[in-house]
């Protein structure tokens, strides 16, 4: 039983070793293929054939994305063509996939150069520092670091101080407040002008009802005028009697009729026989 178990373990170990060797061979084959693409790309780059060089570098990255040399060389081509954003991205990719300090140093150094081109001096200082951490003996990187520090200092001096920013903000705030105050004043003045016009109209109307001494005008003339107008309206037209004339005429007729009636009654009393006690 023990002997059988030992055979099983032995064959299992042999199988694992064979599998590892196969994977190693496949990985090596993949690496060799990617390097061949890089070599072809380098040849195109030397001939200034950027289009084919870029295509071969991309093939290398597609074959083995973890290989830094393809990203590093492609980044350099972008840098030469002035495509700084693409160059920065590919160098960052090279840093990520780098397997040793030499590769990291070169990628960080180039990142610093790109950032200096983009006038991002403060970020460039950090990139050069990272490059020196991986290769402290590189004098070129150290020199570039000094330039980046001077550039960063000059940029900081050129930036507005915090007090100046506050002053600008306060000035903007004051200008806005002054503008609002001006609008409010204009509105208040407009309202006041309308009120003054209304008051002036009322005053003119009041003065029209007063005489020169400021006393209320006597409306007698006005009443007389209105009375005359009423009388004029009551005047009979030609060939017609006014209501007052008709009334007077009726009263006169009544008085005349009363006098006639009284006269008739008096005559009746005079002609009547008076009965006495004496016989004839």
Short description:
This protein is 82% helix and 0% strand. It has ten helices and no strands.
Can you describe what's shown?
With 280 residues, this protein is mainly α. It has a domain at 65-153: Serine Threonine Protein Phosphatase 5, Tetratricopeptide repeat. It contains ten helices and no strands. Helix 1 (2-46) runs parallel beside helix 3 (68-81), helix 4 (84-97) runs antiparallel to helix 5 and helix 5 packs antiparallel against helix 6 (121-134). The chain is elongated, with a radius of gyration of 63 Å. The model is unreliable at 231-238 and 271-280 (pLDDT under 50).
How many strand elements? 0
The name of the CATH architecture of the domain at 65-153 is Alpha Horseshoe
The total of helices stands at 10
Amount of helix: over 70%
CATH top level assignment of the domain at 65-153: Mainly Alpha
Order of helices and strands: HHHHHHHHHH
Structural class call reads mainly alpha
For the biggest sheet, the summary is: none
How many angstroms does the end-to-end distance come to?
Answer: 207 Å
Name the CATH superfamily assignment of the domain at 65-153: Tetratricopeptide repeat domain
